[in-house]
Automatic annotation (TrEMBL):
Keyword tags: FAD, Flavoprotein, Oxidoreductase
Species of the source: Streptomyces nymphaeiformis
Protein name: Acyl-CoA dehydrogenase
EC number assigned by the record: 1.3.8.7
Family, as annotated: Belongs to the acyl-CoA dehydrogenase family.
Length: 397
């Protein structure tokens, strides 16, 4: 069977324009802010520039102002955007907004899409996805969900605590996962709710200090205290929240991989440029065997990551669940990208540790990816479990 990985002409052109936009417009802003932006004015300026360059919101449907790329098309463009920490923010493809747009397109009613998706897709508002809870609540095991929503006249009241809610500071609304039937530990029984930021029952407890800082809106702990929402706030069907979450989680894992792969390439470019010009012991760094091994290993990790992303995206585009392929890709990419950035910093020596290049910032940003969107250990457990089940089914057990 023939395999052709050549991208469509329009997608390749968009990727090239994205690469040019990131290098000419975004990188100077990243350098000015050292990779961390908290100003809505800067976000708006970058997104306005992306709209003018014709590279904004490549993932959403044209009716919402986007370009409707499938997962394979996104892989090419998102990687180019990810070459800068601020590239995804500029294109409006950063987490958690990108994943929320994908889910709202797939699940929301037309009225909900007009109220929430349309302004989100244009960058007029931001959003967050509130599922993770402090222990013993939902984390790597979503079935441990403790936040509860109770039906009351005219709607629902939500009670619970969420933490590590990325982008919550300044978000216009939250998509909240709450248990509507069963008890913590039970499979199923969750529902998604759309909660506006001005709802008096949703309160910010604190900002969580973390190793990474580049995700806009930070990581926040939220309290839902007698938080009333109407029946129109239910996203999808009652008790089907975990099933709907899969619509978001698989693609979101892959778009994380795509964006961080761009940073891995950036780190490699910095390291190779340094190795080509720096001389030690009478030779260029690039001519020394140990440095050559690190450069080669970086290329291998980058190429292998891209291949796994492509395979998983193809499965998702074909309408398959992609559960195994996305777990494999996420686990490998999270670890490989960290290896690439770490080796690149090592090649640059004292320069890599210094603030003169952003490798130290990159290292802090990519390290948590081995935990976010499911830890490597959780994914390995799931990969092994599926593999054993497949073996048993083939053996007729």
């Amino acid at each position: 069977m023939a395999v052709d990985l050549t991208p469509e002409t329009a997608v390749a052109d968009l990727a090239q324009r994205t690469a040019r936009f990131v290098r000419e417009v975004v990188l100077p802003v990243e350098e000015e802010h050292r990779g961390v932006v908290r100003s809505d004015a800067v976000r708006t300026r970058l997104q306005t520039a992306a709209k003018e360059a014709g590279v904004f919101a490549p993932h959403v449907a044209p009716e919402y102002g986007g370009q409707g790329l499938d997962m394979r098309g996104r892989a090419l463009v998102f990687e180019e955007a990810g070459y800068s920490l601020l590239g995804p923010l500029a294109l409006n493809i950063a987490a958690p907004d990108e994943g929320n747009m994908h889910m709202l397109e797939a699940i929301a009613t037309p009225a909900q899409q007009d109220r929430y998706l349309r302004p989100l897709a244009t960058g007029a508002v931001r959003s967050c996805f509130a599922m993770t809870e402090p222990a013993p609540g939902a984390g790597s095991d979503p079935d441990a969900l403790t936040t509860r929503a109770e039906r009351v006249p005219g709607g629902w009241r939500i009670h619970g605590r969420k933490w590590f809610i990325t982008g919550a500071d300044g978000a216009g609304f939250a998509i909240v996962m709450a248990r509507t039937t069963g008890e913590p530990g039970d499979r199923g029984g969750a529902t998604m709710f759309l909660v506006d930021a001005d709802n008096p029952g949703m309160k910010t407890v604190r900002h969580i200090e973390t190793l990474d800082e580049s995700l806009f809106g930070g990581h926040v702990e939220l309290l839902f205290d007698d938080c009333f929402v109407s029946d129109e706030a239910v996203l999808g069907e009652v008790d089907e929240g975990f099933r709907y979450a899969q619509v978001r989680l698989g693609p979101a894992r892959m778009t994380h991989c795509m964006r961080w792969l761009g940073i891995a390439r950036r780190a490699q470019d910095i390291a190779v440029a340094r190795a080509a010009e720096r001389r030690l012991f009478g030779s260029r760094l690039a001519d020394l065997g140990m440095v050559q091994q690190m450069i080669a290993d970086n290329e291998i990790d980058i190429a292998a990551s891209r291949g796994l992303i492509t395979q998983a995206c193809w499965e998702l585009d074909e309408g398959r669940s992609g559960a195994q392929s996305t777990s494999i890709a996420k686990t490998f990419c999270a670890e490989a990208i960290h290896r690439v950035v770490d080796r690149s910093l090592q090649i640059c020596g004292a320069l890599g540790v210094s603030g003169d290049v952003l490798l130290g910032r990159f290292l802090r940003e990519v390290r948590p990816f081995r935990i976010y969107d499911g830890s490597s250990e959780t994914h390995r457990w799931a990969i092994a479990r599926r593999t054993v089940k497949r073996h048993e089914q083939a053996a007729g057990r």
